[in-house]
Design a protein that fits this description.
By secondary structure, this protein is mainly beta. The chain is built from no helices and 17 strands. It starts with 24 loop residues before the first strand and ends with a strand.
Length: 254
């Protein structure tokens, strides 16, 4: 990690993973609040090759204080699972100040191995801290296995509203190849509970090529490209925080 001063100079890089480590960092993302930089990353240090060709992933947090130049100790995100039984397929992270407190939200599309049966299940899970990482809420299931396997995931927040948009395969689809759809789930209490009984599908976001999303207040905006029946790009919005969506505006990709 390195930071740039107001004078345009870059600081010397700071090693985030333990010095001398041969661990592979698979995911990483920084977030800035005030004078603090929150660095979230996942590496394979606990991998025991229980997932075949997929390495396990363990998420860690470190906090850098810009005013003192000190990089804090490494904190492992409490997932509730033994690290050798968890693998991450997608990851997104944010930090924000809410009423003087620092909220952290980590969304992970993950594969979990049952240590007794060896069965592997997939889910999208939200991990939230309301005190800058000192403590964490219980993991919150966002995307159940009925919507897996999962690909890209994004987490967005505005105050106590936390939205997770994720890409999942719709089970039972009659389309020949894997058919990935977009789903939305949200929490209105900063990660304590989910608002919708089931994740809301985002029409007509199916057979995806790529997508992205943003949230401001109650306005949720999504842009995506799909390939069936034609290669098109669509933009659509929700004015109630993702409960319902306005009609999509699209144009064909030549």
């Amino acid at each position: 990690m390195s930071e740039k001063s107001r004078e345009g100079h870059w600081s010397a890089p700071l090693e985030v993973d333990p010095p001398g480590s041969s661990d592979e960092i698979q995911y990483r993302k920084p977030a800035i609040v005030g004078d603090e930089v929150f660095v979230m990353y996942a590496d394979d240090r606990y991998d025991q090759q229980l997932f075949g060709s997929t390495a396990t992933s363990t998420a860690f947090l470190r906090v850098y204080d810009h005013t003192t130049g000190v990089l804090g100790a490494e904190l492992q995100v409490p997932t509730g699972s033994a690290p050798e039984n968890l693998a991450v397929t997608s990851f997104d992270f944010l930090a924000q100040e809410v009423a003087g407190a620092i909220h952290l939200h980590l969304a992970m599309a993950q594969r979990e191995r049952d240590p007794v049966t060896g069965k592997i299940t997939e889910a999208v899970v939200l991990y939230s801290s309301l005190d800058g990482g000192a403590s964490w809420l219980a993991p919150l299931l966002v995307g159940p296995a009925t919507h897996g396997p999962f690909e890209k995931v994004r987490v967005l927040a505005d105050g106590g509203q936390v939205s997770v948009v994720f890409e999942g395969e719709l089970l039972g689809s009659t389309f020949g190849s894997p058919s990935y759809f977009l789903f939305h789930q949200r929490s209105l209490d900063a990660g304590l509970s989910v608002d919708f009984m089931d994740p809301v599908p985002i029409p007509p976001a199916e057979f995806l090529v790529g997508w992205d999303v943003d949230l401001r207040g109650s306005l949720l905006a999504i842009v995506f490209q799909h390939y069936h029946p034609e290669d098109e790009v669509f933009a659509l919005t929700s004015q109630d925080g993702g409960a319902t969506f306005n009609g999509a505006t699209g144009f064909r990709v030549e």
